[in-house]
Amino acid sequence: MRTKKTALYTHYAWRAEPLVFIAFTLLSILNQKTTIFYIIYLFWWTELLHLLIGRFFLRKQWRAASGPKTQQPSMFNHLFLMGIYWVFIIVFFGLMANWRNEDIMMVNFEVLLFRNLFFNLNLAYIIMVRIGYCKTLTDLPPTPSLFTTGMIILHISVIVGGILMFFVVKKFPEIFTPENLWGSAIIIAPFLALRLLIGRRLTEK
Predict the structure, then answer these.
(1) Which residues contact 187 (CB under 8 A, 6 or more apart)?
(2) What is the DSSP string of 33-53?
(3) Of 27, 21, 12, 7, nearest to 153 (Cα)?
(4) Domain segments of the chain: what residues?
(5) Which helix (H) or strand (E) holds 74?
(6) pLDDT in tens, 43-52
């Protein structure tokens, strides 16, 4: 159930979250710490965190509720789909697509091992926003459908990432490297636009 407090929190989080995402991403570009894998893997973690945190608070409310309790919907389909995406993103975008580019591979491994400061800051902010949002709800909705806003962003980003990887990055490997700031900015721009156009609804799930 949405309260006035929920609506107010959602309003400000809705506006601030994409801006924080862009700010950390721009800082990562300036510090030569971003790749296509960085962005897509961040979208994957965003959706997983939204799902898990929402489920945690839903279960907390379910335990605190009085009267007869209905069985909670299963998360198996969501986690199974997220698992498939995790394997594909790691193997394809993290390893295979950049196997011979040591600079990009080093950044990808930093992201994968949570040693990328800007990636970690993004995750921390996502967790903070999601927890704050769930705490303002008096009645959390059930487990969302498979086609949430975050999942749509992930679907589109994987397609866009594949196209950019094969038809742009691989043809001009000397341009699109972490060290080339303009190259990094150009290759990341479509993902920032996608996040702005679609992602502002993330806090409304």
Answers:
(1) 36, 164, 168, 169, 176
(2) ---HHHHHHHHHHHHHHHHHH
(3) 21
(4) 4-60+75-204
(5) none
(6) 999 999 988 9
